[in-house]
Amino acid sequence: MEIDTECLVKSYKEFYELLGEENLMKIYDAFKGQQITFPMKMYDKKLVAEKVKKEFKEHNVSDLTRRYGYSQRWLKETCRVNETKKSIQK
């Protein structure tokens, strides 16, 4: 099916411009009729917390904030809570 780009709804037109016709059709077929909301954060907070607890070192806080989009304060607090839990378990 050839797409008439002049008549596309704004959201589909943006997908068309970003992803091309083939990928637009995949999105259309998979999600037509549904309302989709994209969260402001790309990464899940709980999953990031688990990963950061494993990777956290004082010198890489800036790297982690850039990678995951969470504040340094949140990252430090998340790791502080984890350290407190570890010391309680001992």
TrEMBL record:
Domain Mor transcription activator intervals: 15-77
Q: Which Pfam families match?
A: Mor
Output the superkingdom of the source species: Bacteria
What InterPro entries does the record tag this protein with? Homeodomain-like_sf, Mor_transcription_activator
Q: What is the protein's name according to its record?
A: Mor transcription activator family protein
What organism is the protein native to?
Isobaculum melis
